[in-house]
Amino acid sequence: MPKHHQPMINILNLISFVDLPFCIWGLIQLNIWPTLLGIILVLLGKMWFLDRMVWLYAEMKDNNSEYRSWLYDDKKSRY
Description:
Blueprint: H1 6-29, H2 32-60, H3 65-68, H4 74-77
């Protein structure tokens, strides 16, 4: 993995982890607003993380044979 991706991946995982207690606290208290806030923040962090993973894949597929092997080749799947 290129080193310039690692700090942002760590930050996004931290964002999702830090926001999880809002969700848990809201569920324990049976309060909708902290629960929704926690869910929204956790999901936004994870979606942003997935966006970074797509960026990483797009960057690496031309440089790494393992990543390139994940590409779907329609010609290979035909009879």
